[in-house]
Specification:
Elements: H1 2-10, E1 14-17, E2 21-24, H2 29-56, H3 62-76, H4 80-97, H5 101-121, H6 127-144, H7 147-172
Antiparallel strand pairs: 1-2
Length: 175
């Protein structure tokens, strides 16, 4: 139990009051913006590395393509829960495909928070019907093999999602 709480503490999902108790950490609009901008930087770097590797032929994009197909399938069924899972899995597979240990370590530290924000972001009415269209340019950029362009597309996508989330924040309240 203690190790699980320590992991949640490291991920920023709980806080500890010394010698007293554990509390679930809330997210303010500022917290969300910070997380989205960090995510944009991390995923942008991963996309650059992955696209360059695909362009050189040193990375088979099959796992990324499969993750995208899983997202398409969940969205076609309008299965919001599976779409949330597939959305996060797509981004996570891009990061892991970069084969960059330090990048992966930093992403792992915030992935639970990222996953939570994806779920909240996808609660907007009609979001599940837009996910494939929003992710297609990400996939296309990776497959084109141009690292700089792919990094830019990923950064823009995540930053825009962050802007939208922060604009809606008064309606969402704290997570």
């Amino acid at each position: 139990m203690r190790s699980a709480l320590q992991k949640l503490l490291t991920e920023g999902l709980v806080s500890q009051r010394p010698y007293a108790s554990w509390e679930v950490t809330g997210f303010s609009a500022k917290d969300a913006w910070e997380l989205y901008t960090l995510r944009a930087a991390l995923e942008g770097l991963a996309a650059e590395i992955v696209a360059d590797a695909i362009g050189r032929g040193s990375l088979d994009p099959a796992m990324i393509l499969r993750a995208f197909e899983d997202l398409k399938e969940a969205c076609s069924r309008l299965d919001v829960k599976q779409a949330d899972i597939a959305d996060f899995a797509f981004h996570k597979i891009v990061v892991s495909s970069a084969d960059h240990r330090r990048l992966q370590t930093q992403y792992d530290r915030v992935d639970a928070q990222i996953q939570m924000l994806i779920v909240v972001g996808n609660e907007v009415p009609g979001a599940v019907t837009r996910l494939v269209g929003e992710h297609q340019p990400l996939l296309n950029a990776l497959l084109a093999g141009d690292g700089a362009a792919a990094g830019s597309v990923f950064r823009s996508n995540v930053t825009e999602a962050g802007r939208d989330a922060v604009e809606r924040w008064p309606h969402l309240g704290e997570i």
